[in-house]
């Protein structure tokens, strides 16, 4: 199945996109958690600011050690009868990546979580655990087991798709369905980066945090983005990098080898929705077709005029696709019942 889906600008953001000065005079009364870096106050995007006020930390006990990590996420306001929707994020990002799509899913009545992957986001890593793939997986499983507790619709964008594939292959009982967005699942880990001397790795990570590189990443990631918006989104994207443990966690992940999940893809039997931006300049949409062929139970939808992060660039399209995917089984069940 191959469909095209039209997109739209996030509600309330259209005027901002045309007139950056609207952000400069916005009165703010947001109250942020004390653990969020104070630089959050410099962010103008009202959607990012709103979601940041809802970030909290939950205790997660790793099975591999006695460490209890206060782990950051956005929790749902109320449970629902459908499977919970759990949103991951991409490489070196945070739950703020979902600032536009999260409220749309929540308004639709879905029980929605946005979870920070271990080593990134806003968790307390002052006592740094290993940030290799096995520990990231264990951390997420323990978070699910302690707090979510029901099979979930697991949503993974970019590298988050590799996290989702790895997790589902190892813990199929925790996953009901999968949604993979512009999936980075064919990269062979961190490649030669794992062989770098530690001093060189730290130098590379320092550059990764830099404003010019983050700004350029925005230019690549989106089909069209203004200078004003890219500047503000750069602040959103690097906010979690301001913790003192961020560099250590990122280097630890790099030298551990990273995700290499291509051999696990065909093991995943869960029903899967693949979403792809037609104009992705980072990962070719030819890989969307390959992924569709390799997953035994998948459907695919492409979003036109959209780059690498559709949930940021076209949130209405993405939320509509996810809502339909979540609700289709309930609709079919209701149809069957109505026939008796």
UniProtKB/TrEMBL annotation:
GO MF, one term, reads:
hydrolase activity
Residue ranges spanning the membrane: these are none
- Sorted alphabetically, which Pfam families does this protein's record hold? Abhydrolase_6
What is one term from the GO cellular component aspect held by the record? chloroplast envelope
Q: What are the AB hydrolase-1 domain coordinates in residue numbering?
A: 85-318
Protein name per its UniProtKB record: AB hydrolase-1 domain-containing protein
Q: Which domain of life is it from?
A: Eukaryota
